[in-house]
Design brief:
This protein is α+β, with helices and mostly antiparallel strands. Helix content is 37%, strand content 18%. The protein has 26 helices and 22 strands. The strands form 6 sheets. The chain has a 5-stranded mixed β-sheet with strand order 2-11-10-3-9, covered by helices on one side. A hairpin with a 6-residue loop joins strand 15 and strand 16 (438-442). Bound molecules: 2-(butylsulfanyl)adenosine (IVH).
Length: 731
């Protein structure tokens, strides 16, 4: 550092502190109290100022700066971390009788010690532990196997309800455990977007939350809008999770108090119990001696503690709480799959101890998936962008888990056959952790005598073409890809979607409009649209009412976005073509492997299948796609329009020392994860293949590589190298 930069540093430090405090406060008010103290514009301005200062003075940038909320870092790998105290799981049951047993057993074990329980929601998400030192978040780790988890700190910092810096009073060194959940509304919006982008939607909010925490791109994690629900405070220096403090003195003080809890079981953060129990809880470690108080103390530290916890004194109160939430859970903004009951007095945990995996002082009651039976009125058949037919059950509307269910997928012809669905049947519909209702069977008690199997369509419901069902495929498809309207519009939608060509000013409605007018019949037509054609284009709803029309400005925006799409890199253009089974990742691998469209077109099925993540089935689809003259003409038109059909190596490649070399990677490595080592090969100009063939140059062998791989490599004379050999080649 030179002499002069020191002069600037003090004002910069001050301004950084000032901005940090302001932004922290705005964030806090926004996420904890639903209060906007500044406009988004002003907020962004301050955030940008802070980011710029941090860029100029990297030494002054705190790992817990508000700029970390928006992400921007890349997680290279997720370091494995051993938990200071194991993250235990809970014994769980679907049976209320077992909860009655648990309560009786606990009461017996504690004898005449006065104690209470807390009942709280069992959040359906991903468990993590957050370590705070001197009020600063220092580490976030997933539960993993309970002993060892993944360090996901950078992604955790993007979750707005995880405080990066604590307020109020807090222990100097402690851990807060809780569940990262994906609220329903955000999850649905996200899945919707995924589908629009041509990505596979997530099955449920839990899977999506788990996937989000393992994202390499922290900015993408920030966009996911996850939430943190704390459920446990670990105070290593006071008590471990098991408790280290002697419980007996508390036992003397606490006499079981006969008292009734006040109010309903759902009053926010309700403290039931009697004063005797409560006074008792204040002994020993003051406000940290009961679970209830520990959880409450988190609020003033800046955590968003769910307000539904209740202190219960006896089994009746526990039952009441369970019954209430079994119905009411559907009105919560996030998923719960049960209720957790814990002994409230921390000092008693030690006394009660542990079983093999879980504490004896807590238990989870799990809710059953809700199931209803409702008549199947008819089956509709939807046609997807690739021609796949999906049968959908139209049901007599029925209330289930917080929403009215009218439709549910019947997946494909095989599914209908396996379920043996007959005409006039009632279907059993279930909603578990998923928000999408599932058909789980036929309600045989409602089957009419002599009911016949439901007929399956033989022709496309949209264009009338005879459907095809390839050998070994579970579903049918319409082969009329160039003449079947939903397939054409579906392909157009996929082509313009964000992860493909990203022409966002052309939404579904506009595309449909352009298609109906005959202006855009295939993806290449998009590039010959003119301003005159666009201006004044109108769309109508079903009743014939005019809904929207494109004005001059709208037309200019569309044309600008189309022009900009000509810079989209080859891998995304390849994805945008919509070749069956070629997703975003597959397209990237293919593009990097072959380098340009001509080499890809010339590749044999075998070569295609050797690319990582491209199986034989996909290889055949790719091969067939490029064997079709119509597709070749389409690609020529896209080329003429100026789209990119060649990989820009400089965008990801750092060297070409491995140029022309093909690697197969197998086993476990010490310095890299397998994905990292593959990325490294590509960065250095090499290719990665999924299987060993005559074209493989090296088998990069880690620990625990299977013997067949070695045998095959030896047979074909492929060089087998170690991680060290590899490093020697590239470094
Ligand atoms: S307490 C020793 N409370 O359920 C106590 N767990 O099988 C540790 N969970 O891994 C857990 N909501 O991921 C607790 N309110 C809650 C919870 C909860 C969800 C999860 C947690 C844990 C699993 C227990």
């Amino acid at each position: 550092m030179d002499l002069f930069s020191n002069i600037d540093i003090e004002p910069a430090r001050q301004r950084i502190d000032e901005l940090t405090e302001l932004l922290d406060r705005y964030n806090y008010e926004y996420y904890m109290n639903d209060r906007s103290l500044v406009s988004d514009f002003e907020f962004d301005k301050l955030l940008r100022e802070l980011a710029e200062l941090e860029r100029q003075h990297p030494d002054l940038a705190s790992p817990n700066s508000p700029t970390k909320r928006v992400g921007g870092e890349v997680n290279k790998s997720f370091r494995q971390v051993t938990h200071r105290f194991p993250m235990l799981s809970l014994g769980n049951t679907y049976s209320i009788d077992e909860i009655v047993d648990f309560e009786a057993r606990t009461r017996k074990l504690l004898g005449d010690t006065a104690f209470s329980y807390t009942c709280e929601l069992k959040y359906d998400g991903v468990a993590i532990g957050l370590t705070y030192k001197h009020g600063q978040l220092v580490q976030a780790v997933t539960r993993g196997n309970g002993s060892v988890g993944d360090d996901i700190t950078a992604n955790a910092r993007t979750i707005p309800t995880i405080p990066l810096r604590l307020r109020g009073n807090y222990p100097d060194d402690f851990e807060v455990r809780g569940e990262v959940v994906y609220p329903f509304a955000e999850f649905e919006a996200f899945n919707h977007q995924r589908e629009a982008d041509g990505d596979e939607p997530f099955a449920n909010p839990r899977n999506a939350a788990s996937g989000s925490l393992k994202l390499q791109d922290t900015a993408e994690c920030a966009r996911r809008k996850l939430q943190f629900c704390p459920y446990f405070v670990m105070l290593p220096q006071v008590n471990g999770e098991l408790g280290t403090e002697s419980a007996t003195h508390l036992g003397l003080i606490l006499r079981f108090a006969i008292g009734t809890a006040t109010g309903s079981p759902f009053t926010p953060l309700e403290r039931g119990g009697s004063d005797a129990v409560r006074e008792g809880s204040k002994t020993g470690n003051g406000e940290y001696s009961t679970h209830f108080d520990r959880m409450q103390s988190l609020i003033q530290m800046g955590f968003k503690v769910q307000p539904y916890m209740k202190e219960c004194l006896n089994i009746n109160e526990i039952r009441e709480y369970i019954d209430y939430w079994d119905n009411e859970r559907w009105n919560l903004p996030f998923g719960t799959d049960g209720i957790v009951i814990k002994v409230n007095q921390v000092a008693l945990w030690d006394l009660l101890g542990l079983t093999a995996k879980s504490p004896r002082w807590a238990i989870a009651f799990k809710f059953k998936a809700q199931q209803v039976s409702t008549p199947l009125e008819s089956i509709s058949f939807q046609v997807g962008r690739t021609g796949i037919i999906t049968p959908v059950a139209n049901l007599t509307p029925v209330w289930l888990g917080g929403t009215t269910v009218k439709r549910a997928t019947l997946v494909n012809a095989d599914f209908i056959e396996k379920m043996d669905i007959r005409e006039g049947d009632s279907l059993l519909i279930e909603k578990g952790g998923e928000i999408i209702p599932k058909v789980v069977g036929v309600d045989l008690s409602n089957r009419k005598a002599g009911a016949q199997p439901v007929p399956y369509i033989t022709n496309c419901p949209e264009c009338g073409t005879r459907l095809v069902r390839a050998d070994g495929e579970a579903g049918h498809y319409c082969p009329n890809s160039d003449g079947c309207p939903p397939q054409i519009v579906g392909r157009l939608e996929h082509f313009v979607s964000r992860k493909a060509m990203n022409i966002d000013s052309l939404g579904s409605e506009r595309l449909e409009m352009l298609y109906k007018k005959g202006l855009v019949m295939d993806i290449a037509d998009i590039y010959s649209l003119t301003r005159e054609q666009l201006i004044g284009l109108e769309s109508y709803d079903e009743s014939g009412q005019r809904r929207a029309s494109i004005q001059e400005k709208g037309a200019d925006n569309i044309l600008a976005a189309i022009e900009k799409s000509k810079e989209v890199p080859f891998e995304r253009v390849l994805f945008a073509l919509g070749i069956r089974y070629v997703g975003e990742v597959g397209a990237k691998k293919l593009a990097r492997h072959f380098g340009d469209i001509d080499t890809l077109i010339a590749a044999s099925e075998e070569e295609l299948a050797s690319v990582e993540d491209v199986g034989e089935k996909t290889a055949k689809f790719i091969y067939d796609y490029f064997s079709d003259l119509r597709h070749m003409q389409l690609i020529q038109r896209l080329r003429d329009a100026g789209l990119v059909f060649k990989v820009d190596k400089s965008s990801y490649q750092q060297s070409d020392v491995l140029q022309g070399k093909t690697f197969v990677v197998s086993g476990v490595f010490s310095r890299f994860s397998r994905d990292e080592i593959k990325a490294d090969i590509e960065k250095n100009g090499g290719k990665v293949s999924g299987s060993i063939s005559g074209k493989t140059d090296y088998l990069l062998a880690g620990d625990k590589m299977g013997p067949e791989k070695r045998k095959k490599a030896e047979k074909l004379g492929v060089a087998i190298i170690s991680e060290e050999d590899y490093l020697g080649m590239v470094r």
